[in-house]
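4-hydroxy-tetrahydrodipicolinate synthase: structure, please.
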Amino acid sequence: MELHSGDVDTTPMTTTTSAPAAAPFGRALCAMITPFTEAGALDLDGAQRLADRLVSEGCDGLVLSGTTGESPTTTDAEKAALVRAVREAVGDRASIVAGVGTADTRHTVELALEAEKAGADGLLVVAPYYSRPPQDAVEAHFREIADASGLPLALYDIPGRTGTRIEPDTMIRLAEHPRIVAVKDCAYDLLGTQKVLAGTELAYYAGCDEYVLALYAIGASGYISTVANVAPRQFRAILDTFDAGDTAEAARRQQRAVPLIELMMSAGLPGAVTAKAVLGALGLPAGPVRPPLRPADPARIDGLLAAYERLVAA
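Here you go.
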Protein backbone atom coordinates (compact mmCIF):
# COMPACT_ATOMS: atom_id res chain seq x y z
CA MET A 1 0.00 0.00 0.00
CA GLU A 2 1.37 3.41 -0.98
CA LEU A 3 1.18 6.02 1.79
CA HIS A 4 1.08 9.76 1.27
CA SER A 5 1.92 12.57 3.64
CA GLY A 6 -0.64 12.72 6.44
CA ASP A 7 -1.94 9.18 5.84
CA VAL A 8 -1.98 6.65 8.68
CA ASP A 9 -1.05 3.04 7.97
CA THR A 10 -3.90 0.91 9.31
CA THR A 11 -2.49 -2.41 8.04
CA PRO A 12 -2.81 -4.96 10.88
CA MET A 13 0.50 -5.80 12.50
CA THR A 14 1.52 -9.41 13.03
CA THR A 15 3.01 -10.12 16.41
CA THR A 16 5.64 -12.82 16.60
CA THR A 17 7.74 -14.06 19.46
CA SER A 18 11.34 -14.86 18.64
CA ALA A 19 12.83 -18.12 19.79
CA PRO A 20 14.61 -17.96 23.14
CA ALA A 21 18.37 -17.44 23.04
CA ALA A 22 20.61 -20.48 23.23
CA ALA A 23 20.74 -21.69 26.82
CA PRO A 24 23.58 -24.16 27.42
CA PHE A 25 22.65 -24.72 31.08
CA GLY A 26 18.90 -24.19 30.84
CA ARG A 27 16.95 -20.94 31.26
CA ALA A 28 15.66 -20.93 34.83
CA LEU A 29 18.60 -21.57 37.14
CA CYS A 30 18.64 -21.27 40.91
CA ALA A 31 21.79 -20.22 42.76
CA MET A 32 21.06 -22.83 45.41
CA ILE A 33 21.87 -22.38 49.06
CA THR A 34 23.99 -25.05 50.73
CA PRO A 35 21.96 -26.64 53.54
CA PHE A 36 23.73 -27.28 56.82
CA THR A 37 22.67 -29.18 59.91
CA GLU A 38 21.98 -27.24 63.09
CA ALA A 39 25.50 -28.21 64.15
CA GLY A 40 26.89 -26.59 61.00
CA ALA A 41 27.80 -29.73 59.05
CA LEU A 42 26.97 -30.23 55.39
CA ASP A 43 23.39 -31.55 55.07
CA LEU A 44 23.46 -33.71 51.95
CA ASP A 45 20.00 -35.16 52.54
CA GLY A 46 18.61 -31.64 52.85
CA ALA A 47 20.43 -30.59 49.69
CA GLN A 48 18.85 -33.45 47.78
CA ARG A 49 15.36 -32.62 49.04
CA LEU A 50 15.75 -28.94 48.25
CA ALA A 51 17.18 -29.65 44.79
CA ASP A 52 14.28 -31.97 43.99
CA ARG A 53 11.79 -29.30 45.08
CA LEU A 54 13.45 -26.59 42.99
CA VAL A 55 13.45 -28.74 39.87
CA SER A 56 9.86 -29.83 40.44
CA GLU A 57 8.87 -26.15 40.77
CA GLY A 58 10.38 -25.09 37.44
CA CYS A 59 14.16 -24.80 37.70
CA ASP A 60 15.95 -26.48 34.82
CA GLY A 61 19.39 -25.78 36.23
CA LEU A 62 21.05 -25.51 39.64
CA VAL A 63 24.20 -23.58 40.48
CA LEU A 64 26.00 -25.09 43.46
CA SER A 65 28.71 -23.48 45.59
CA GLY A 66 28.20 -19.99 44.27
CA THR A 67 27.95 -16.85 46.39
CA THR A 68 24.55 -17.90 47.75
CA GLY A 69 25.93 -21.37 48.33
CA GLU A 70 28.48 -19.96 50.81
CA SER A 71 31.43 -21.20 48.77
CA PRO A 72 34.02 -19.25 50.80
CA THR A 73 33.23 -21.34 53.88
CA THR A 74 32.81 -24.81 52.39
CA THR A 75 35.74 -27.15 51.89
CA ASP A 76 36.85 -28.64 48.59
CA ALA A 77 35.58 -32.05 49.72
CA GLU A 78 32.20 -30.59 50.66
CA LYS A 79 31.87 -28.92 47.27
CA ALA A 80 32.48 -32.21 45.45
CA ALA A 81 30.16 -34.13 47.76
CA LEU A 82 27.40 -31.58 47.14
CA VAL A 83 27.66 -32.05 43.37
CA ARG A 84 27.47 -35.83 43.70
CA ALA A 85 24.47 -35.70 46.02
CA VAL A 86 22.49 -33.25 43.91
CA ARG A 87 23.31 -35.18 40.74
CA GLU A 88 21.86 -38.27 42.36
CA ALA A 89 18.72 -36.37 43.38
CA VAL A 90 17.90 -34.63 40.07
CA GLY A 91 19.36 -37.06 37.54
CA ASP A 92 19.06 -35.60 34.07
CA ARG A 93 16.07 -33.37 34.91
CA ALA A 94 18.30 -30.33 35.38
CA SER A 95 21.81 -29.19 34.64
CA ILE A 96 24.29 -28.78 37.48
CA VAL A 97 26.75 -25.91 37.31
CA ALA A 98 29.49 -26.00 39.95
CA GLY A 99 30.97 -22.82 41.34
CA VAL A 100 34.72 -23.32 41.37
CA GLY A 101 36.12 -19.80 41.27
CA THR A 102 38.81 -18.73 43.74
CA ALA A 103 41.51 -16.07 43.90
CA ASP A 104 44.09 -18.73 42.96
CA THR A 105 44.24 -20.06 39.38
CA ARG A 106 45.86 -23.33 40.43
CA HIS A 107 43.26 -23.98 43.11
CA THR A 108 40.44 -23.13 40.71
CA VAL A 109 41.76 -25.68 38.21
CA GLU A 110 41.80 -28.32 40.95
CA LEU A 111 38.20 -27.55 41.88
CA ALA A 112 37.16 -27.64 38.22
CA LEU A 113 38.61 -31.11 37.75
CA GLU A 114 36.96 -32.38 40.95
CA ALA A 115 33.58 -30.95 39.88
CA GLU A 116 33.91 -32.69 36.53
CA LYS A 117 34.61 -36.01 38.26
CA ALA A 118 31.67 -35.49 40.60
CA GLY A 119 29.20 -35.13 37.72
CA ALA A 120 28.78 -31.41 37.07
CA ASP A 121 27.59 -30.27 33.64
CA GLY A 122 29.34 -26.93 33.71
CA LEU A 123 31.51 -24.57 35.74
CA LEU A 124 30.83 -21.11 37.14
CA VAL A 125 34.11 -19.23 37.52
CA VAL A 126 34.20 -15.84 39.23
CA ALA A 127 36.82 -13.24 38.39
CA PRO A 128 39.85 -13.58 40.66
CA TYR A 129 39.19 -11.43 43.70
CA TYR A 130 41.21 -9.30 46.12
CA SER A 131 44.48 -9.29 44.13
CA ARG A 132 42.78 -7.21 41.39
CA PRO A 133 44.76 -8.53 38.40
CA PRO A 134 44.83 -6.53 35.15
CA GLN A 135 42.70 -7.63 32.22
CA ASP A 136 45.42 -9.65 30.46
CA ALA A 137 45.87 -11.67 33.66
CA VAL A 138 42.11 -12.08 34.07
CA GLU A 139 41.91 -13.40 30.52
CA ALA A 140 44.82 -15.81 31.07
CA HIS A 141 43.17 -17.06 34.29
CA PHE A 142 39.95 -18.01 32.52
CA ARG A 143 41.74 -19.56 29.55
CA GLU A 144 43.84 -21.79 31.81
CA ILE A 145 40.74 -23.06 33.60
CA ALA A 146 38.85 -23.62 30.35
CA ASP A 147 41.83 -25.54 28.94
CA ALA A 148 42.11 -27.77 32.01
CA SER A 149 38.62 -29.29 32.00
CA GLY A 150 36.26 -30.72 29.42
CA LEU A 151 33.28 -28.85 30.87
CA PRO A 152 31.72 -25.67 29.46
CA LEU A 153 32.40 -22.59 31.52
CA ALA A 154 30.36 -19.56 32.56
CA LEU A 155 32.21 -16.38 33.46
CA TYR A 156 30.90 -14.78 36.67
CA ASP A 157 31.16 -11.00 36.46
CA ILE A 158 30.40 -9.44 39.85
CA PRO A 159 32.87 -6.59 40.40
CA GLY A 160 30.98 -5.29 43.43
CA ARG A 161 32.21 -8.35 45.34
CA THR A 162 35.48 -9.24 43.60
CA GLY A 163 36.87 -5.75 42.98
CA THR A 164 37.75 -6.91 39.45
CA ARG A 165 35.60 -6.39 36.36
CA ILE A 166 35.65 -8.75 33.41
CA GLU A 167 35.62 -5.96 30.85
CA PRO A 168 33.38 -6.38 27.78
CA ASP A 169 36.37 -6.45 25.44
CA THR A 170 37.92 -9.21 27.55
CA MET A 171 34.69 -11.22 27.32
CA ILE A 172 34.61 -10.79 23.56
CA ARG A 173 38.11 -12.24 23.32
CA LEU A 174 37.30 -15.07 25.74
CA ALA A 175 34.23 -15.97 23.69
CA GLU A 176 36.60 -17.35 21.06
CA HIS A 177 37.44 -20.25 23.42
CA PRO A 178 35.21 -23.22 22.56
CA ARG A 179 34.45 -24.05 26.21
CA ILE A 180 33.72 -20.51 27.41
CA VAL A 181 30.02 -20.38 26.61
CA ALA A 182 28.17 -18.18 29.11
CA VAL A 183 28.20 -15.23 31.50
CA LYS A 184 26.51 -14.73 34.85
CA ASP A 185 25.98 -10.99 34.72
CA CYS A 186 26.08 -9.02 37.98
CA ALA A 187 27.98 -6.02 36.62
CA TYR A 188 25.06 -3.57 36.38
CA ASP A 189 26.39 -2.39 33.01
CA LEU A 190 23.57 -2.64 30.49
CA LEU A 191 25.59 -1.04 27.72
CA GLY A 192 28.48 -3.45 28.22
CA THR A 193 26.09 -6.40 28.32
CA GLN A 194 24.54 -5.40 25.02
CA LYS A 195 27.98 -4.93 23.47
CA VAL A 196 28.92 -8.52 24.35
CA LEU A 197 25.54 -9.90 23.31
CA ALA A 198 25.86 -8.19 19.94
CA GLY A 199 29.45 -9.26 19.37
CA THR A 200 29.50 -12.87 20.59
CA GLU A 201 27.41 -16.00 20.99
CA LEU A 202 27.89 -16.07 24.76
CA ALA A 203 24.76 -17.04 26.66
CA TYR A 204 23.94 -14.36 29.21
CA TYR A 205 22.26 -15.14 32.52
CA ALA A 206 20.90 -12.37 34.73
CA GLY A 207 22.56 -12.76 38.10
CA CYS A 208 20.64 -9.89 39.70
CA ASP A 209 16.98 -10.75 40.19
CA GLU A 210 15.67 -7.29 39.35
CA TYR A 211 17.23 -7.63 35.88
CA VAL A 212 15.65 -10.96 34.91
CA LEU A 213 13.09 -9.63 32.45
CA ALA A 214 15.17 -6.68 31.26
CA LEU A 215 18.08 -8.85 30.15
CA TYR A 216 15.84 -11.60 28.78
CA ALA A 217 14.07 -9.05 26.60
CA ILE A 218 17.34 -7.99 24.95
CA GLY A 219 18.61 -11.49 24.24
CA ALA A 220 19.79 -13.10 27.47
CA SER A 221 19.27 -16.82 27.91
CA GLY A 222 17.66 -16.71 31.34
CA TYR A 223 18.70 -16.18 34.94
CA ILE A 224 20.73 -17.53 37.82
CA SER A 225 18.55 -16.41 40.71
CA THR A 226 18.98 -16.31 44.47
CA VAL A 227 15.34 -15.44 45.11
CA ALA A 228 14.34 -18.56 43.15
CA ASN A 229 15.40 -20.57 46.20
CA VAL A 230 12.09 -19.53 47.75
CA ALA A 231 9.96 -18.62 44.70
CA PRO A 232 11.11 -20.85 41.81
CA ARG A 233 7.70 -21.08 40.15
CA GLN A 234 7.14 -17.33 40.18
CA PHE A 235 10.46 -16.57 38.49
CA ARG A 236 10.03 -19.28 35.88
CA ALA A 237 6.64 -17.73 35.04
CA ILE A 238 8.31 -14.45 34.06
CA LEU A 239 10.21 -16.19 31.26
CA ASP A 240 7.31 -18.40 30.20
CA THR A 241 4.90 -15.48 29.97
CA PHE A 242 7.37 -13.45 27.92
CA ASP A 243 7.97 -16.40 25.58
CA ALA A 244 4.22 -16.75 25.11
CA GLY A 245 4.14 -13.19 23.77
CA ASP A 246 2.41 -11.52 26.72
CA THR A 247 5.12 -9.00 27.52
CA ALA A 248 2.81 -6.83 29.63
CA GLU A 249 1.99 -9.74 31.92
CA ALA A 250 5.68 -10.68 32.09
CA ALA A 251 6.41 -7.13 33.24
CA ARG A 252 3.69 -7.36 35.88
CA ARG A 253 5.12 -10.63 37.17
CA GLN A 254 8.59 -9.10 37.40
CA GLN A 255 7.21 -6.06 39.21
CA ARG A 256 5.27 -8.19 41.69
CA ALA A 257 8.56 -9.83 42.69
CA VAL A 258 10.28 -6.52 43.43
CA PRO A 259 9.36 -6.23 47.15
CA LEU A 260 10.76 -9.68 47.89
CA ILE A 261 13.81 -9.06 45.69
CA GLU A 262 14.52 -5.83 47.53
CA LEU A 263 14.23 -7.39 50.98
CA MET A 264 16.30 -10.44 50.04
CA MET A 265 19.01 -8.75 47.98
CA SER A 266 19.20 -5.02 48.71
CA ALA A 267 18.37 -4.52 52.37
CA GLY A 268 21.77 -5.02 53.93
CA LEU A 269 21.92 -8.80 54.32
CA PRO A 270 23.57 -11.27 51.91
CA GLY A 271 21.26 -13.47 49.84
CA ALA A 272 22.48 -16.61 51.60
CA VAL A 273 21.21 -15.21 54.90
CA THR A 274 17.83 -14.08 53.61
CA ALA A 275 17.17 -17.19 51.50
CA LYS A 276 17.97 -19.47 54.43
CA ALA A 277 15.76 -17.36 56.70
CA VAL A 278 12.73 -17.82 54.44
CA LEU A 279 13.39 -21.48 53.70
CA GLY A 280 13.87 -22.26 57.37
CA ALA A 281 10.65 -20.47 58.31
CA LEU A 282 8.82 -22.51 55.67
CA GLY A 283 10.18 -25.75 57.09
CA LEU A 284 12.40 -26.41 54.07
CA PRO A 285 16.05 -27.53 54.15
CA ALA A 286 18.36 -24.66 55.00
CA GLY A 287 19.99 -24.65 58.42
CA PRO A 288 22.29 -21.93 59.71
CA VAL A 289 24.77 -19.84 57.76
CA ARG A 290 28.44 -20.27 58.53
CA PRO A 291 30.43 -17.47 60.17
CA PRO A 292 31.29 -14.76 59.46
CA LEU A 293 27.69 -14.60 58.21
CA ARG A 294 25.06 -14.38 60.92
CA PRO A 295 21.37 -15.30 60.82
CA ALA A 296 18.61 -12.79 60.19
CA ASP A 297 16.87 -11.42 63.26
CA PRO A 298 13.19 -12.25 63.94
CA ALA A 299 11.89 -8.87 62.75
CA ARG A 300 13.71 -9.24 59.43
CA ILE A 301 12.37 -12.77 59.02
CA ASP A 302 8.82 -11.54 59.59
CA GLY A 303 9.23 -8.93 56.86
CA LEU A 304 10.68 -11.45 54.45
CA LEU A 305 7.85 -13.89 55.07
CA ALA A 306 5.22 -11.19 54.55
CA ALA A 307 6.75 -10.25 51.18
CA TYR A 308 7.03 -13.91 50.21
CA GLU A 309 3.40 -14.60 51.06
CA ARG A 310 2.21 -11.59 49.04
CA LEU A 311 4.17 -12.79 46.01
CA VAL A 312 2.97 -16.39 46.06
CA ALA A 313 -0.64 -15.29 46.68
CA ALA A 314 -0.65 -12.89 43.71
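Notes: The longest strand covers residues 180-185.
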